[in-house]
UniProtKB/TrEMBL annotation:
It is a multi-pass membrane protein. Its main location: membrane. It comes from the Eukaryota. It comes from Salvia divinorum. This is Transmembrane protein. Residues 216-233 have a biased composition (Basic and acidic residues). It is found in: Endomembrane system. Keywords: Membrane, Signal, Transmembrane, Transmembrane helix. Belongs to the DESIGUAL family. The keyword Transferase does not apply. It holds the Pfam family DUF1218. The keyword Transmembrane applies.
Amino acid sequence: MAVTHADLSPTPKTTNLGSKTGAFLMVLSILLGLFCFILCLIAEAARSQAKWRDSQCIYTGTGKLPLLSATAAFAALAAAMVVQHVFLLVAVSKSDSLVEITWDPQSQFAKTLTWQAGFFFVATWTAFAVGEIQLLIGLSVESGHLKDWETPRPSCLVIRQGLFTAAGVLGLATVFFAAGLYITALRAERYIQIQENTRRDILELSVMYASPPRSPVRDQSVRADRGEGPNLPRQDEHYVHTLDYYLRAFDKQSRLV
């Protein structure tokens, strides 16, 4: 069985940003956001309304279904937020490249990543906070007439149309903003890794070219007969004689003469 490069490459840890665990958790959080949105639509369709009769009002339903739907939507959105941000916190804290990050002030790509990360972080928490507050308002209103909802009363507190729908949209936006924050962190990690690899390659090349290989020194004697020029040994085509070599040979010839 042939061994491929993928077999020799190290398996990424489960806490890495680019691991399968990270992708699975991001998909799970998006599904929880979609589930929250569907539950909000159910709560919007089943929300209680008031009917007036002779300056008194009664509720059109007990409010149990919108209460349960809003509660489940609240829990699903909170779970999605916890899953995404806990994984991001653990992955970033264990990533050496992101912990010891040093941005190049002249890099336009680094500036873009910084602005994107700040935007997604603020947008995620803003949408999450507003969506959860709207769901809490709906929960408090719908839980106020679980009993005696058919009893006439002088005032009936109901939820305005579109409150649960807006909460569902904000919940869906929350998980997508958080996914954008995850993708931005992943791009930042890969950008830093590319910079480190480029810096390492440049350092290796500079070391290699700073110390060129030395030519081998050949110690060969020079013999000359009387009345003849210096008998120079045969050399390879790649061997280059120095000026000192010829000076020493002619000096020995002059002494023999």
